[in-house]
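In response to reviewer comment 3 from the previous cycle, which asked for concrete evidence that the modeling workflow produces usable outputs, we include below a single protein chain processed end to end. The sequence was submitted unchanged, and the resulting structure tokens are shown without manual editing.
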Amino acid sequence: MNQINDIPHPCFSEPAHFRVFRIHLPVALKCNIKCKFCDRKIGAHYHTSRPGVSKQIITPEDALKLVENHFKEKKYKEVVVGIAGPGEALYNKETFQTLELIKSEHPKTQLCICTNGLLLNKFSRRLFNLGVKYLTVTINAVFPIIGKNIYSFINYNNKIYRGFDAANILIENQLAGVRKSSDLGMLVKINSVLIPGINDFHIVDITRKVKEAGAYIHNVMPLIPLVELSHIQPPTCDLLRAVRNQCEEYLPQFRLCKQCRADACSIPGLE
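The workflow returned the following structure tokens.
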């Protein structure tokens, strides 16, 4: 646990959660999967704090300017720069353009990517070469029979898949991507959305599988009921705690997640 506490990333380490400034760059508009609980919103009038929400989409050039402005202020000694949407980071060329600009101008920047993992196996090496050190992969099932109830469809190699096939392709790519990224030396955190009645009994299976693949830490998050899953009540605090405790037998659990926006800029623990 002490080793985890030493990680200078506010979403991997609880001490860093109250110390390290994180900048999310909302450059990734498009997405290649449809989670049944996801409702992406872009616009100045969306003030809710949750994944998939951003005031606007910015260009890679504007993203670089935003990072440079924070560096010029020298207000924070420790900064992590990440791309977490509001779409899928690896499905947008702007993500890689942004990483290239930052690496060129500020090569010592701590870089982070959040991804659904469908394209992670394909792009792990490229991310590593661009200096990405931290990865967060959202994995909500490792059995397709469960995953088919969480994902409406995926777009893979320009073909739409639904149901069992969609979940199977997604899970295979996610686990292969986690394994490759971990082997390359990147620190991999797994996010899992706890959905009562769908995967609450299955989260520990995810923990076991991702540990085998090389994941470093696990973050079990409560469902925010929206769109197709708006009828499901979010998990109680007792259920969330019980699942995290069960999973902690296999992987360290991160328990302070803010489920933040794609354009969040702050120290999470001080929000």
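The chain has one domain: 2-265. We consider this sufficient to address the reviewer's concern, and the full set will be provided in the supplementary archive.
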